[in-house]
Design brief:
The structure holds two protein chains of two kinds. Chain A is of the alpha+beta class. Chain A is 33% helix and 10% strand. Chain A has helices spanning 18-23, 42-52, 66-73, 102-109, 166-173, 183-196, 202-209, 219-232, and strands at 82-87, 90-95, 128-131, 134-137, 150-152. By secondary structure, chain B is α+β, with helices and mostly antiparallel strands. The chains are: A alpha+beta, B alpha+beta.
Chain lengths: 233, 800
């Protein structure tokens, strides 16, 4: 079995001290508060795995939940992780780990579960949200990187009175969704497109939407929806 | 027949949730004190767990519990295991860890030492059938549902006789035949014989099979990712080790299943077990990579077919042999469906089918959209084209002469079909697609690009019978239609619920569909799979509505005098025939039903209904006028779903890429229930078919037994840019006589016909070259166009 390192650890050198690790971070990343030297280094562990034939699990995209985060944030001397995020027009204070993705913050800390995780690694687009009006994969965006920006999720599309966004209305009229799991991402890509190009050609829409996979294959009906929204908006 | 609701578009009630983000899938639920669970899975294709040391992991702060195979029910081989001490594929779950958060659970997994003893493994069925070849399980190498786990080896002579490039035909596990095969081949003017391979590949549901569970007052509340609803109760209860009545199963939305979430599956029970062990709610997210292992996959085929054709193209005899790659567990019976599909679509005068389901140490297989039928369409349809070319026949004509009509027969005992209009689908498609014009373009060159056109057809059975319906009119006059079928995303739960509204003459706005949650008192229904919902559920809902109708008429007669026959259903009221002033409203009837009690309010239980329905009936009894009945309408023969697809492509012989210029899918699904959702099925199925034809496959290293592709970007389900921007759909729309509103399902063949049509179009663009293999990837096309050999051997599987 080849050595397998979960992707979240690829750039992580277990020999590095906490200070060295923190020093190489971009300025917006706060040091990891709960870092403690591991009893066994990852490298030694992997060697052990190879020798003993033991298993390493297949995917490392995991989440440090609110329970532990708040518990550990209280550690004496821990740096401030409480940040302000502007999501769907509201400023929300939230405790965010340095390595936390926006998708995780939205889904697990702000309760905005409309944003879906299809792959959690930038392949499918189910987690697409708007950042300053531009569609982004929230599974591949660090929450700390959007501190001074505005985030819009599917929950933020309806008007103040609950009226549907023209793109939402068009998705319903054209029966765009099938299973619906990719739909929030498709909606956000469509909204992002129409904000920058209110009257796209079908081919432009196809290109703009191409970062959003749909296994039900509802592409035709989604494109019909985008074109209808452009006509009716 | 003219209907008020059937055949009309409507807004399915779950659609609003889908576009507002309010629709809750399994991963969207939270519970107080919820733990997060992660799996430790096997890095080896086949091994035995010698020792597990969790001591370090359990010392990590925040780690709550470890669950191993010893903590969960086990099932006799080759049944799927929940957790195992003998993993049979890379990614087979060995144990689970629950912690306060996911990262801690993952940290703990890294601190667990598992000693594994490697065992022999195999990723190519033919290797396992070879004398002395490895077995995927210690107990044997052949098994399936209703096929006992056993060891079958072919002889060296079988292999030697066939040679390297032809499928050997050693001892099958199962076979059937009908008619005189030898006479059939002797009568044919042309006999073709080809070996073929269809690749196995992942289902690629967008929602990984995440689950969340907790216990309350002895009941297990389970939020699962499931195509089906009440059909899951018995099996999931068994996996959890409880009675079905102690399971509260909640599955309102499902982010795609395509067969992989149709029936109970073991991994969904892990959070339930973990929750029982820890006393806390448990969420287990499944990653995309894990989904490639435990998320099921379509079985691959290595096949060989011999087909005899008359001068006019009529098929006189078929001899089909399918070696089916089943993964290591019980799997699914695609190999059997291949025989039935061949029999139904081509109506051969004589036929023999032989098959063997071989175990491999690759992901466990499950039904995937058109299981067996769609592989057959992809493999056989290009061979039909070859016959057309050799006999000088039109490719639609050769299909038409063989296609089933209402006198069609199928399978070993040549049983009847409920109805079949494949010829009509071909005619309709040829006309709308302008086949005669387009086929003139075939082979036209433009630089390195060449035009190809193709037609394909496919079949799947399309309906079952004998399930229960439950409807209820509450004193506010609202009709509650209880649907236990599930919500795969086809909206057929909604379209078939409208049958009850149609029968009871209800305004759709005054109807509520109760579904998705055991607490909503749902009847026993078949799962939402197998293209069956339209046929099966319209019958069940019709039965319940007819029962409610009878009770409405009886109540009217009782209160207003006369016989029930003197009354009819008006606009949400029961009206005396010829005297509209004499009537009671449905709301009044519901109140009367409660007063009368007994059968009217659901206190009397029909003897023939299922225990699940009985339980649900007890939940609604006394709350209104209740209609409850088992579908006892006659059903003779198989209800077929049939479809024809037409494709025009432009293929670049220098790059092996092609563009699909036009696609038309035509469904033969009886009466159309919901035109808009039928269109999305036909087009969406085609997208999946294009992926099957030319993109998606497993890649396994034969020396290490490990997968080489476990990501969307490597396995390539089609994106917007791989398929036409506009596609077209049509339906024959002729009623099936064995369904009260004439409906049959169609979700599966609309995929197979598109896969076949695309393969035939590629073959056509290349002057009739037969690849005898799916997927046809670009380098294969480049090699074929340049007259070079391929990099794979003809019978090799799981190749790049």
């Amino acid at each position: 079995m080849a050595e397998y390192i979960p992707p979240d650890a690829r750039d992580f050198d277990p020999g590095m001290t906490f200070e060295e690790f923190a020093a190489q971070d971009p300025p917006w990343v706060r040091p990891i508060a709960d870092f403690t030297p591991r009893p066994v280094s990852r490298r030694e562990f992997i060697k052990g795995v190879i020798v003993s034939g033991a298993a390493v699990t297949a995917a490392g995209f995991v989440f440090r939940g609110p329970g532990s985060a708040s518990a550990r944030a209280a550690t004496a001397g821990a740096p401030e992780r409480l940040i302000s995020l502007e999501v769907n027009g509201r400023v929300r204070r939230v405790d965010v780990m340095p390595q936390e993705t926006l998708a995780m913050t939205l889904r697990y800390k702000l309760g905005l579960t409309g944003t879906k995780l299809g792959c959690d690694r930038g392949e499918c687009g189910a987690c697409t949200v708007l950042i300053d009006g531009v569609p982004n994969y929230s599974c591949s965006t660090l929450t700390h990187s959007v501190r001074a920006r505005t985030v819009t999720t599917v929950e933020g599309l309806q008007g103040p009175g609950g009226e549907l966004h023209p793109v939402q209305r068009a998705f319903m009229a054209e029966l765009g969704p099938q299973c619906g799991f990719c739909t929030p991402g498709q909606l956000m890509s469509a909204v992002g497109l129409l904000q920058s190009n209110p009257h796209p050609t079908r081919e432009q829409a196809r290109l703009a939407m191409s970062g959003n996979l749909c296994r039900c294959g509802a592409y035709d009906h989604y494109l019909n929806s985008v074109m209808r929204a452009a006509r009716e908006a | 027949m003219a209907y008020r609701l059937i055949g009309k578009d409507f807004t399915p009630p779950d659609l609003l949730g889908k576009v507002t983000g309010k629709a809750k899938y399994a991963e969207d639920f939270r519970a107080e004190g919820m733990l997060y669970c992660r799996l430790l899975t096997s890095p080896m294709p086949h091994a035995r767990v010698r020792r597990i040391d969790t001591s370090r992991a359990l010392k990590i702060p925040g780690v709550v519990a470890v669950l191993t195979a010893d903590d969960v029910p086990s099932f006799p081989p080759p049944h799927n295991s929940i957790l195992t001490n003998e993993p049979h594929f890379v990614g087979d779950p060995i144990l689970a860890v629950a912690a306060e958060d996911e990262t801690t659970a993952e940290d703990a997994i890294e601190q667990i030492r598992v000693e594994l003893e490697p065992l022999p493994f195999v990723v190519n069925p033919l290797d396992s059938l070879y004398p002395g070849g490895p077995d995927a399980r210690t107990e044997g190498n052949v098994a399936n549902v209703r096929l006992d786990l056993q060891k079958i080896k072919w002889t060296a002579k079988d292999f030697a006789l066939a040679g390297e490039n032809t499928l050997p035909q050693g001892k099958p596990a199962e076979e059937w035949s009908c008619g005189d095969l030898e006479a059939g081949f002797a009568a044919g003017r042309l006999v073709l014989e080809e070996s073929f391979v269809t690749g196995g590949y992942s289902h690629h549901s967008m929602e990984p099979r995440t689950a969340m569970a907790y216990w309350q007052n002895g009941k297990c509340y389970l939020h699962g990712s499931s195509q089906s609803q009440t059909f899951m109760y018995y099996g999931m209860a068994r996996y959890i080790g409880i009675k079905p009545e102690d399971l509260v199963f909640i599955a309102e939305y499902c982010g795609g299943g395509f067969g992989s979430k149709g029936a109970p599956y073991p991994v969904m029970s892990i959070p339930a077990h973990m929750s029982r062990k820890t006393g806390r709610p448990v969420l287990m997210r499944i990653s995309r990579a894990e989904e490639y292992f435990l998320g099921a996959a379509r079985p691959g085929f290595q096949g060989r077919v011999k087909i005899g054709f008359r001068e006019d193209g009529r098929i006189t005899a078929v001899d089909l042999y399918v070696v089916h790659e089943n993964g290591p567990n019980v799997g699914f019976w695609d190999f059997r469906n291949a025989g039935n599909a061949m029999s139904i679509v081509y109506q051969p005068l004589a036929m023999r089918w032989r098959g063997i389901s071989v175990l491999t140490n690759t992901p466990p297989r499950g039904a995937q959209r058109g299981p067996g039928e769609n592989q057959t369409a992809a493999a056989i349809e290009p061979i039909i084209d070859k016959a057309a070319r050799e006999l000088g026949l039109d490719r639609v004509a050769i299909r038409r002469i063989n296609a089933p009509d209402n006198d069609g027969k199928y399978g070993a005992d040549q049983g009847p079909l409920t109805s079949a209009y494949l010829k009509d689908a071909l005619d309709r498609g040829a006309a709308e697609f302008k086949w005669e014009e387009k086929k003139q373009l075939s082979g036209r060159r433009r630089g390195s690009k060449v035009v190809g056109v193709g037609v394909g057809q496919a079949y799947h059975s399309a309906g079952s019978s004998g399930f229960d319906g439950l409807v209820r009119i509450t004193p506010d006059g609202v009709l509650h239609i209880h649907s236990g079928v599930g919500n795969l995303g086809t909206y057929s739960y909604g379209a078939t619920s409208r049958v009850a509204a149609e029968v009871l003459n209800y305004r759709w706005e005054n109807c509520v569909i109760e579904r998705g949650d055991a607490r909503k008192h749902l009847p026993w229904n078949l799962g939402q799979f197998g293209s069956n919902t339209s046929f099966t559920m319209s019958r069940a809902n019709h039965a319940a509505a007819m029962d409610a109708r009878a009770k409405l008429l009886e109540i009217a007669a009782r209160d207003l005098g006369g016989n029930p026959d003197d009354y009819e259903l008006g606009e949400e009221r029961v009206v005396r025939k010829g005297d509209p002033a004499s009537h009671i409203t449905y709301a009044q009837a519901a109140r009367r039903a409660i007063e009368l009690g007994g059968k009217y309010a659901g206190h009397e239980v029909p003897e023939d209904i299922n225990a699940i329905t009985r339980m649900s009936l007890a939940g609604v009894a006394g709350g209104g006028l209740v209609g409850v009945a088992k579908d006892t309408l006659a059903k003779v023969g198989v209800a077929p779903a049939l479809a024809a697809g037409f494709v025009q492509i432009e293929l670049d012989v220098e790059t092996g890429r092609f563009e699909i210029l036009d696609y038309l899918g035509v469904a033969d699904c009886g009466t159309v229930l919901h035109p808009q959702s039928l269109a999305t099925q036909i087009k969406g199925g085609a997208v999946m078919g294009f992926g099957m034809a030319c993109m998606e496959r497993h890649v396994y290293d034969p020396k290490l037994g490990i997968p080489a592709n476990i990501g969307f970007y490597q396995c390539k389900p089609p994106s917007y840019l791989d398929v036409p921007s506009h596609m077209h759909s049509a339906a024959v729309d002729l009623a099936d006589p064995q369904n009260p509103i004439g409906s049959r399902g169609v979700g599966e063949p609309v995929m197979g016909c598109a896969a076949a049509a695309l393969i035939c179009a590629i073959s056509d663009a290349l002057g009739g070259h037969l690849f005898n293999r799916t997927p046809i990837v670009p380098d294969m096309i480049v090699n074929a166009a340049a007259g070079r050999g391929q990099s794979h051997k003809p019978l090799q599987v799981n190749t790049v």
